[in-house]
Specification:
Length: 207
């Protein structure tokens, strides 16, 4: 059974919300699935959401080994005086979770190229894991450019691409939200796994 790395087109696109839905759907289907967020910057609310979705199977520290207090990119936290991120620790913890559980949905921090250290990004971390990547897209005007740039970078690294999840946070359909799926399918022949609407609380079991 595959583990997955969940990234997004930008901050606040709904990665944690979607990751939690994925975990819940897998667990409802009888899979020993958990969520992980190796890097958390600022309040630990997202980690708590993933822990709850995972049925309390692991502690907060187990699913989130690196917790920085500043709500900024990990590298920015370092520049502001916090400790440099121990990438090897984060990798070790996530890989250990993958050995212990059937399925791990590992959420990144911010977008795909967010700097973790001076010379290391979220994309580099995902590449070391080598897991199929799911991209969460905030379904709005401007999503096409952000999504296509993210997909281009994922493919350049040779990583397996599992598909896109379109997430409508506003719940107010407009021309962009109604056409983004079709344009993306035409532009990159990428699988759209599901479209999530505002207020949705579950995913189909096939996701």
């Amino acid at each position: 059974m595959s583990h997955y790395f969940i990234t997004g087109t930008d901050t606040d696109c709904g990665k944690t919300f979607v990751t939690a839905l994925l975990v819940k759907a897998a667990r409802a289907a009888g899979v020993d699935a958990i969520g992980a967020k190796p890097f958390c910057c600022g309040p630990r609310t997202d980690v708590e959401i993933l822990a709850e979705a995972s049925g309390g199977a692991e502690s907060l520290d187990a699913i989130n080994p690196i917790w920085l207090q500043t709500p900024a990119a990990p590298r920015a936290c370092e520049l502001l005086g916090e400790a440099a991120v121990d990438v090897s620790k984060a990798l070790s913890v996530v890989r250990d979770l993958a050995r212990k559980h059937q399925q791990v949905f590992c959420e990144g921090a911010g977008g795909w190229l967010v700097p973790i250290t001076k010379d290391y990004t979220i994309a580099d971390f995902a590449a070391e894991l080598g897991w199929p990547v799911i991209v969460v897209v905030r379904n709005k005007l401007g999503a096409l450019n952000h999504t296509l740039l993210t997909l281009e970078s994922i493919r350049r690294r040779g990583l397996p691409f599992a598909g896109i999840i379109l997430n409508d946070l506003e719940g107010q359909p407009d021309e962009a939200t109604r056409t983004n799926r079709r344009v993306l399918e035409e532009s990159c022949a990428c699988p759209i796994l599901v479209e999530i609407t505002r207020g949705q609380t579950s995913l189909p079991p096939a996701i």
